[in-house]
Amino acid sequence: xxxxxxxxxxxxxxxxxxxxxxxxxxxxxxxxxxxLDPATGEFVKGGIVEQSRQALLNVKNVxxxxxxxxxxxxxxxxxxxxxxxxxxxxxVYSEFFKTDCPARSAVQVAALPxxxxxxxEVIAEA
Length: 126
Prior knowledge:
By secondary structure, this protein is α+β, with helices and mostly antiparallel strands. It is built from two helices and six strands; from the N terminus they run βββαβαββ.
């Protein structure tokens, strides 16, 4: 098996010992992204809608850096600080995934990195 490390300045840098993404065996595994602006390293202003949009933009940029895209996503996992934010997150999510949507899980978690409201990870075809 060979694997390629994916790194782009168009998404926040890793804040630990992991890669933004890995391309292996015909797939891209994008690490979970939160609503950080890659230019500032700070959360975008606003709430769940804005953080969801930025997290998905970050995922999109990682996938594109790997030669893939959201249209090739096969599985997403959404981690929410508050499951009551599901509808608002889902409205933003539907802006990125309109047809032939990937399989998805969405769960509430006790806490997310840096106090994020949402984190989204994606597996896509390379």
